[in-house]
Write the structure tokens for this entry.
Amino acid sequence: MSDAVLVVTSNRKATHEYHIDDRVEAGLVLQGTEVKSVRAGKVNLQEAYCAVDKGEVWLLQCHIAPYSHGNRANHDPVRPRKLLLHRREIARLEKSAAQKGYTLVPLKMYFKRGRAKVEIGLGKGKKLYDKRADIAEKDMKRKLSRSDVQRLRED
């Protein structure tokens, strides 16, 4: 079997809103029609977050659209979904997330060896000036790359 990773969706907003300190891969418990919707890419992680409750980690507010060919047994689009992690990882994440300003943010959802996975990041919220600095840095890199391309074209 290949270890190919098929990325379904990524939460680009998360890296803009949070400083990501730590990343963890977690399995995802899905119902039948949810798997088909995820494979079709009908997932939205924009408003999603993770929470630890009674020793279990849950993915909350993640919207997986109902399967188009599903019947009355179709799933609820924003139901809480359980994440599969080792007990030590859960304890470490719970301890880290309890610190002021930290939260568990889903970064991307993908399939690895046919299994649905979610990458969770331990993030601390950015201030407005941090966001502005990141935008300025991206603009500077873009300008430099454009000038490099122009210089190569002239040669």
Observations:
- The chain has one domain: 5-126.
- The mean pLDDT is 88.
